[in-house]
Amino acid sequence: MMITIEMLNEIKKKTLKTMTLRLEKKNNGISSINKENVSDKKHVLICGGPGCHSSGADELKKRFEQKIDKEELTDVNVSIAGCFGLCESGPNIEIYPGGTFYSQVKIDDVDEIVEKHLCRDEVVERLLNEGAIKEENIKPVFEVDFYKKQEKIALRNCGIIDYNSIDEYIALDGYQALAKALTEMTQEEVIDIMKKSNLRGRGGAGFPTGRKWETAFKYEADKKYVICNADEGDPGAFMDRSILEGDPHSVLEAMAICGYAIGSDQGYIYVRAEYPVAVQRLKTAIKKAKEKGLLGENIFGTEFNFNIEIRLGAGAFVCGEGTALMESIEGKRGMPRPKINRTAHKGLWGKPTIINNVETLANVPPIITKGAKWLKSIGTEDSPGTKVFALGGKIKNTGLVEVPMGTTLREIIFDIGGGIPNGKKFKAVQTGGPSGGCIPEEFLDTPVDFASLGKIGSIMGSGGMIVLDDTDCMVDIARFFLDFTVDESCGKCVPCREGTKRMLEILERITKGKGTPEDLDRLESLSEAITDSSLCGLGQTASNPVKSTMKYFRHEYEAHVKEIRCPAGSCQELLQFFITDKCVGCTKCANNCPASCISGNLKERHVIDTEQCIKCGTCMEVCPVGAVIKK
Amino acid sequence: MKAVFFDNLAKGGNKMEFKFNWEGNKERVEQLNSFMKEKRYKKGALMMILQEAQDLFGYLPIEIQKMISKELNIPLSEIYGVATFYSQFSLIPKGENVIGVCLGTACYVKGGQDILAKIEEILGITIAETTPDRKFSIDATRCLGSCGLAPVMMINDEIYGRLTVDDVEEILNKYR
Asked: CB–CB of A398 and B106 under 8 A?
């Protein structure tokens, strides 16, 4: 089937009518669309993001539909959309018009919502999201603190459209950018817009996308490839997953635009097998795009052909590295290649190849339709646009946020993220995954962009942000990341294969209380050597977690090796257990101690013999009054 | 993870040898053969074929690796190299129920390691091993992308979030 722009606009017009209510969310409450065109009275939107989906979004939808049938309500539309972002309070539900934001909705709550909200327009206050009530006023979802400071480009459709509906994607200007590129622009013009917008790669390194495309465009070859890198492996990062699951067509459209710009007719999406839901939704999306003629031969009646195939990863972190990923698609061990040639000249099967990250691609279509100036008006001079971050760890609002570049860490963690829960104190934020570093409190006002984070010893990376509080030991965090790198090192080059292993051994020694002050010097010199001599990015950045924690938290390392003490109280083998004067003398601890090293009489304070103690923590668990402490 | 498996072999510890049952797997072998015929001329077919075999048999028996080697005319050493590189491929059968404990950063700082220790204690096996009755095997996964629910584990396709050590036994019992 061949599609024309007129047909595309026809679908858009028709589908918009069924979506009008929901668009309130996109326009922050301003409903600019003619109300007469609205075909439904109410919309129930259920979050189908990774977190909420696994807490039962599908069952919620079913229950809603059953109950709505039973109440004989007409004109109510129930759909599941992509990730809303606020995973902490999932499963989340929004009801339009009005944008009422319900959280932690259980299947048994559905009947009440239908009876009160849908039938009688009464808000079910007990289910409202905590942030949606302020001084007894009910706020719509787009005015909740978590969302207020966000600006969405890559996630523009996530949480609004039904991810399985290509028509809903088209209704929100989907495939317009591809139509414009193919029918109104030359290849050079497309590349020119991308270059002028200065969109930088969101996968970590921040290489300008337009320049990359230009390199491949200028290199003549009989075959060129476009790869979407969806091998999202950084622990703590799940923005690519949310885009693939919530708005798969935006990635497909961008790949086709890239294909047109560089002169390629074949794209691959290399996606982790650990994301079965994403794979399924991508397959559906590709099928629907082909049926509509938006992928395949002679797209929009032009000479341009483009097809996309999915290739599954098989659980190797290093395959997120471009050349390793190509080796893997070629059916080999995913080991990085020496960078003698650029992949834009010699990539997959030796042909010019463009490899872009999911989030980068999701930014492309709006740049083509709205222009380079529009992107440059958002973010900073050096890093235009927005960035998606995955907030996790010791933070109140875990979830996905998209903010303009240049937003400070403090705004992200405290204003949007809601700060640290349980009355604990902020200690550091880890950005950039195993290649990044830990940023301490004094740099919280650093604006987040590519250059600023680099200056303070971390990296933007793919956008994982793990917040740590005062009970997290920084030496142990460094050890955790080294453990990860050792596991995932492919073994091709010696510095990474052997060096990271030695570093891990030293860190393990330190966290077990067997480290010496000389170990700290060894760690430093090994860090330098591995950074300088490894073959690929994985090895070159492997020591960043160690370097940054040693720089900002050296006193913690020193406490471990000099005083054999863990200031955060996290390294089990360095701890000592004590019983405070809260003790009521119930004898529970003494009776349960496997080493029989607790003594004391009934109704008197007990004492632990720290020499004999095996630090199992049983006494702390059984104590009814919390008198056992560790330090 | 692979290192653990080989260390065990070296120590003669949990050494698991499984003989491949050709008769019982006849249909699956046929399925794999027709899959190979269909894909063999596709570029980079080896990964897809190994993934299909892993899905069909639950692991990559050496017998099947030899069969693939012959059919595709790729040296066995190369196939073995690929099979041992990726953590999704297993050289021993996986259990009926595959438990994936997330050891990503968000889960780690929220106690994922304790969850894993509890599972290991209950089942008596460690990462990349299978219980002798083939009911369970444990995979360590790096981030399941459900950080909002940390700590998280996955049994087959079911995700369990916001876990505490005390939840583990009850959840495992559902699969016994």
From this structure: yes
Shortest CA distance from A470: residue in chain B: B109
How near does any CA of chain B get to the CA of A78, in Å? 24
| Token digits of residue A372 | 């380079």
Whether B59 and B53 have beta carbons less than 8 Å apart is answered as no
Q: The complex's ipTM?
A: 0.81
pLDDT tens track for A193-242:
999 999 999 988 889 999 999 999 999 999 999 999 999 888 888 899 99
For chain B, counts of helices (H) and of strands (E): 8, 4
Work out the average pLDDT over A531-557: 94
Are A492 and A615 members of one domain?
Answer: no
Closest residue in A to B139 (Cα) is A315
- The CA distances from residue A570 to A114, A553, A631, in Å, are 47, 15, 9
Classify domain B97-173 at the CATH superfamily level: Glutaredoxin (3.40.30.10)
Q: Give contacts of B142 with chain A, Cβ < 8 Å.
A: 233, 235, 317, 484, 488
Residue A487 sits in the same domain as residue A454: no
**Cβ contacts (< 8 Å) between B50 and chain A: which residues?**
314
Q: Are residues A96 and A70 in the same domain?
A: yes
User: In terms of domains, do A16 and A58 share one?
Assistant: yes
CATH number for the domain that contains residue A429: 3.10.20.600
Instruction: Give the DSSP H/E element, type plus range, for residue A94.
Output: strand A93-96
Domain boundaries, chain B: 19-85, 97-173
CB A282 within 8 A of CB A241: no
Encode pLDDT of A138-147 as tens digits.
Answer: 888 888 888 8
CATH assignment of the domain containing A296: 3.40.50.11540
The predicted-structure confidence for B89-140, as pLDDT tens digits, reads as follows 988 888 889 999 988 888 888 888 899 999 999 999 998 888 888 899 998 7
Q: Name the percent of chain A lying above pLDDT 90.
A: 65
Contact B148 A349 (CB under 8 A): no
Which structure tokens are listed for A462? 């793919």
Q: In A, which residues are within 8 Å of B149 by CB distance?
A: 51, 54-55, 87, 90
